[in-house]
């Protein structure tokens, strides 16, 4: 049967998203890959079982469905291999467990995703790993923090909630001079707007729950590695029995097909709302890397190809911190189009109050509470009306 022609090197991003990860003619011409449910895989004889001389041997080691998604992600990331796991947090914890042992030292960015901090403090430290948090804007200066036992440097850009930008290339170069593995949570940008491995990162991490899914109904994470670290990552996932399900893999692969179109809309709408918020007297600051006023804007402009739909703002609330929560809650409780819910990357807009009490370096701002927005696919005019009602309620609180 006819084989699909390979994509040309200059194919556009949406063309690539529409065609990567599956050859229809490898399975009777059906456009989408089959959903293969598997635990047991049969071998034709004992010799094949002993030598594992067939592609599939057990459900935890992959199926045609999970492989289709991993191949698509490798195409996007430029990686040597990818594993899919049941959540974004699992996508962080598996490589940490793969590359860290008792007695090792790990540098973790202080603006990290909060559940990652909890995993480090509650699990890794209990296992004998020394954890140190560093300023997200340290850049190449991170070399001064590297110890003889430093084995891993974890980055995230922009930072969770407060959106600090990191000089990923400078950090990677410094870390590699000392033999450290560099990991990056790149969920915000996706590989469409930033490819970590092109900037020296060894392990690219995504909560595919977010933009690759796009519909707020799938939990999954992915971890993509360069050739140096892929074997150890793969072996760890197999040893731990961590794997993504075929059904979820199918849904993520389906979501990838429209991710480019959706991201363009998220980006455009979020920037319009961010600029509008920046013009308001009741907003102290807008934390969005694509705004020229943002401290990390030049790094974003230099390294990133776009911005997604998540950013934060500081609500102007006077100089009495006691009033911060009341004003933030008044604003948020008034919203009707913006849902109050965790996660992001779906079609619906969300808003959450930000808790920064776990920070050790980048503390909460003193001029008001931080509110994070996820701008969905709704019309901007309607979202502005919703926020207007929230600001009115905050003013009256």
UniProtKB/TrEMBL annotation:
**Record-linked NCBIfam families:** cysta_beta_ly_B, PRK05967.1
Source organism superkingdom:
Bacteria
- Could you tell me what reaction this enzyme catalyses? L,L-cystathionine + H2O = L-homocysteine + pyruvate + NH4(+)
Q: What is this protein called?
A: Cystathionine beta-lyase
SUPFAM superfamilies the record matches: PLP-dependent transferases
**What organism is this sequence from?**
Pseudorhizobium endolithicum
Q: Upper taxonomic classification of the species?
A: Bacteria, Pseudomonadati, Pseudomonadota, Alphaproteobacteria, Hyphomicrobiales
Per its UniProt record, what Gene3D superfamilies does this chain match? Aspartate Aminotransferase, domain 1 (3.90.1150.10), Type I PLP-dependent aspartate aminotransferase-like (Major domain) (3.40.640.10)
What are the names of the required cofactors?
Answer: pyridoxal 5'-phosphate
Question: Which InterPro entries does the annotation name?
Answer: Cys/Met-Metab_PyrdxlP-dep_enz, Cys_b_lyase_bac, PyrdxlP-dep_Trfase, PyrdxlP-dep_Trfase_major, PyrdxlP-dep_Trfase_small
Pfam assignment, any one: Cys_Met_Meta_PP
- Family indicated by similarity: Belongs to the trans-sulfuration enzymes family.
Q: Which UniProt keywords apply?
A: Lyase, Pyridoxal phosphate
């Amino acid at each position: 049967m006819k084989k699909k022609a390979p994509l040309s090197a200059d194919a556009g991003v949406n063309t690539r998203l529409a065609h990567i990860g599956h050859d229809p003619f490898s399975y009777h011409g059906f456009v989408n890959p089959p959903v293969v449910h598997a635990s047991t895989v049969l071998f034709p004889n004992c010799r094949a079982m002993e030598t594992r001389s067939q592609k599939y041997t057990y459900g935890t080691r992959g199926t045609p469905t999970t492989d289709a998604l991993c191949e698509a992600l490798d195409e996007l990331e430029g990686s040597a291999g990818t594993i899919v796991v049941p959540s974004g947090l699992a996508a962080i914890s598996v490589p940490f467990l793969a590359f860290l042992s008792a007695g090792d030292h790990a540098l973790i960015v202080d603006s990290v995703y909060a559940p990652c901090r909890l995993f480090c403090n509650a699990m890794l430290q209990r296992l004998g790993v020394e954890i140190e948090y560093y300023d997200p804007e340290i850049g190449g200066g991170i070399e001064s923090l590297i110890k003889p036992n430093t084995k891993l440097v974890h980055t995230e850009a922009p930072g969770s909630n407060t959106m600090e930008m990191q000089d990923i290339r400078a950090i990677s170069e410094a870390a590699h001079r000392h033999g450290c593995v560099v990991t990056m949570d790149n969920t915000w940008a996706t590989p469409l707007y930033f490819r970590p491995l092109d900037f020296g990162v060894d392990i690219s991490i995504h909560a595919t729950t977010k933009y690759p899914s796009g519909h707020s109904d799938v939990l999954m994470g992915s971890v993509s590695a360069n050739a140096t670290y892929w074997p150890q990552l793969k072996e760890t996932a197999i040893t731990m029995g961590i794997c993504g399900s075929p059904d979820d893999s199918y849904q993520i692969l389906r979501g990838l097909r429209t991710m480019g179109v959706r991201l363009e809309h998220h980006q455009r709408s979020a920037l319009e709302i961010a600029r509008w918020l920046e013009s308001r007297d009741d907003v102290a600051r807008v934390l969005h890397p694509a705004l020229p006023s943002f401290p990390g804007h030049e790094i974003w402009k230099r390294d990133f190809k776009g911005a997604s739909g998540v950013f934060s703002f500081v609500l102007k609330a006077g100089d009495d911190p006691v009033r911060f929560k009341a004003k933030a809650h008044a604003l948020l409780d008034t919203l009707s189009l913006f849902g109050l819910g965790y996660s992001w990357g779906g079609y619906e807009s969300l808003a959450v109050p930000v808790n920064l009490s776990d920070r050790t370096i980048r503390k909460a701002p003193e001029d008001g509470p931080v509110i994070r927005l996820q701008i969905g696919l709704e019309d901007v005019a309607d979202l502005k009306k919703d926020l207007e009602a929230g600001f009115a309620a905050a003013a009256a609180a």
